[in-house]
Amino acid sequence: MTGSNFLANLSSMVVETAANVSSSIVEIASHRSLASGFVWREGLIITADESLADEGRILVEFADGTERAASVVGRDPSTDVALLRVEGADAPSATLSDEPLRPGTLVVVAAAAESAPLVLFGSAIAVGPDWRSMRGGKIDARIELDVRLRDRAEGGLAVTGEGKAIGMVVRGPRGGTLVIPSATIETAASLLLEHGEVPRGYLGLGLHQVTATGGGQGAMVMSVDPDGPGAVGGLLQGDIILRWNGETVPSVNALVGTLDHQSIGRLVSLGIRRAGADVETTVTIGTRPRG
């Protein structure tokens, strides 16, 4: 194959890949913010939470030029997934794939801007295991693209050359582009649809990182919700949590990061130091109150 044929075929692949999902891509305008999104299910739109304004009207423009007002079903900053509802829209849903991705895979970003398709092209330069966002959300895989993401493209779909939509593109640290994988989107959006939020585990404790006597890290209890799980478990202000289910506590952030929706209802054993003495107790993780 000559160089010109290769480039022509590659160009055709990019165009066709974007075209195949374009009818599911939408443009989203909220207060002083423009972004992309996609149809998840009938009447339901997914976009990046970070790109969605905190107040004001939300307008969704579909690929056929139709505009509809949208309402917020729920938002999860920890996974950067926001779910919107639009009445009276007729657009096909995107089919998400959780097929594993390999580094080097060519990826097309399908988005929308100024009432027209916005298409970016690059590759997956890094693919890693699940990780925790800075806000404690579990992201099922770390996928980084070598694509410079425009503001309006955030919330668009990342699609492989085989036409598989692997997730939603968002801004990462230091200007990088990350993909929120399909599995994470499905979990977060389903919880938002059911609860209006993604429930989080709750200890009812205000914690502060400390260095324990004799070395190692601990989480000092600075405050106790009198009606929270920690109080029921007998924790007191000034206690230092040193062990969580028999494991050392590496940091307060790591401990808080375990309090996702799957942790709710679990019984955990805590090793604490109270006034110089070691004490064992158990706590049943509750559900974080709204607000």
Secondary structure layout:
Layout: H1 3-21, E1 25-30, E2 33-41, E3 44-48, E4 58-61, E5 67-76, E6 81-86, E7 106-113, E8 116-128, E9 131-132, E10 138-139, E11 142-145, E12 157-160, E13 165-171, E14 177-181, H2 182-195, E15 201-202, E16 205-211, E17 217-224, H3 229-232, E18 240-244, E19 247-248, H4 252-257, E20 267-274, E21 277-284, E22 286-287
Antiparallel strand pairs: 1-2, 1-4, 2-3, 3-6, 4-5, 5-6, 7-8, 7-12, 8-11, 9-10, 11-14, 12-13, 13-14, 15-22, 16-17, 17-18, 18-19, 18-20, 20-21
Tell me the strand order in the biggest sheet.
1-2-3-6-5-4
- Poorly predicted runs of 5 or more residues: none
- Number of distinct beta strands: 22
For this entry, what is the oligomeric state of its chains? single chain
Description:
By secondary structure, this protein is mostly beta strands. 15% of the residues lie in helices and 44% in strands. The protein has helices at residues 3-21, 182-195, 229-232, 252-257; strands at residues 25-30, 33-41, 44-48, 58-61, 67-76, 81-86, 106-113, 116-128, 131-132, 138-139, 142-145, 157-160, 165-171, 177-181, 201-202, 205-211, 217-224, 240-244, 247-248, 267-274, 277-284, 286-287. The strands form 5 sheets. Strands 1-2-3-6-5-4 form a 6-stranded antiparallel barrel. A 6-stranded antiparallel β-barrel has the order 7-8-11-14-13-12. Strands 16, 17, 18, 19, 20 and 21 form a 6-stranded antiparallel beta sheet that branches. A hairpin with a 4-residue loop joins strand 12 (157-160) and strand 13 (165-171). It is elongated.
